Amino acid sequence: MTDVLGKAESVFVLFVVACLSCFYKKKISPGLIFFTFACSMGLFGVLPSKLLMSSLVNKVTFSLLCLYLVILGALRTGCIENILESIFKASKGKSLKFYLGLTAFASFFPSRRIQKELSGFLRKKNAVADNSTHLIFPIFFVLASSLTLMGSVTNLVSDHITEEMLGCKHRGFFTYGPISFSLFFASFLFFFYVIKLQQRQGLIARFAARLHQNKQKKTVYPLMEKSSISEIGDNLHFGMPSKSSAPTEEGLEGCSSRVPLRVRVGTMIVFLSMLGLTALGVPLIYVTPASAVILFFLGAFEKKGVFTKLPWDVFLLVIASFLFCHAFIETNLHLFIAYKLNFLQGLHSQVTFFLFTSALLSLCMPSVMVVSFLLPVAVCLVQSPSSPFIQLIAAAVTLGSFFLFPKKSIVSLNKSDHSLEDHSSLIKLQLQWICIVYLVFIVHVFFL
């Protein structure tokens, strides 16, 4: 195929076919699809074996592997459940404070297992909370998790591509404080605005009630399972634990009844130490391997079946993103696309284009693949590799891929059974969020 189309054209065709396959083949995992097409580039002579190996083994994949091992150990020994119990007691059972505490804790981990553990804990406590919190919490979880030191997997991939592959000065996503903290406070204020809005109008509560009635046999959100609709108020409280609440799979995994006390205490110390060190700015490549090794010798996780519980689809996506990014750079495909986009001269136009383009592409492909495709193109448009604008343009591409249209956002719900008035109101709410994120980026353009 390379003889007919050329290497750059072949890479672009493989990438487009992989995206289309991921979009239409819902039964096949996206990681397997992109990894298969990415590895096929080696057969065409696009990538040398050195780049193939560097994509498989690097500080991002190694840090993620160790991080997930630590999470599995913390779940098995009951460390996560003990922390959730502490947050529950500190919030005195008030739902809003409890959800904010859960968000602050869960935002450190790029793992769906943590979110499942949270939903299982809520069911165990038989939470009685207003449905607006049930709907907004998954959104705010995604937003907050994108701005922490560990953050999302997409942030780690973006940092590695910018610094290692493109050779630009990159201090890490979170350490570029102005953008991160501005967006955090913007999302935090928007969270409370939506809560107050539904308290006045009951919009989201009505929408959640109809979802619960129309889809009783199909779970729309894990956090909405077995939840009761209550009166809308400022301070809603959790009920007592229900005896009939069935333990979830994650709850069984985190059961610590058979784990020795020495292992539980040691895991808690290691886990909290890891959080503290990363909060102080120590890189994951140093913290997570040390934590995983200590937990291994403590016996925090079962050695036999631990690797079967790892999210291999995430690892395949990360590896595929590095492979495609190397291919774009090796074939100069990113330079060709950047040349076609040379009409984007101003900072405002570049930030606007890459923010919304990455957001639209994320609707049909995983965010890490969006970053691997657009980030080299965006950096090429920057005149100097040491320019501070690289931090802003990298943030626009990264955040646009999952922050502008977060998973389980309001407009992503199925609204076919609901009134047109509520439909339009929810769309307006989502548009307000998009405008807020865009204005944050535009404001930061003036400081460069």
Question: Care to describe what's here?
Answer:
- 66% of the residues lie in helices and 0% in strands.
- It has 448 residues and is mostly helical.
- The protein has one domain.
- The relative contact order is 0.15.
In a nutshell, what does this entry contain?
The protein contains 21 helices and no strands.
- β-strand amount: under 5%
User: Describe the biggest sheet?
Assistant: none
Number of continuous helical runs: 21
The H/E string reads HHHHHHHHHHHHHHHHHHHHH
The number of distinct β-strands equals 0
Shape: globular
Radius of gyration (Å): 23 Å
Poorly predicted ranges: 127-132, 219-254
Proportion of helical residues: 55-70%
The number of domains is: 1
Quaternary structure of the protein: single chain
Note the gap between the termini. 45 Å
Q: Structural class of the secondary elements?
A: mainly alpha
Overall average residue pLDDT: 75
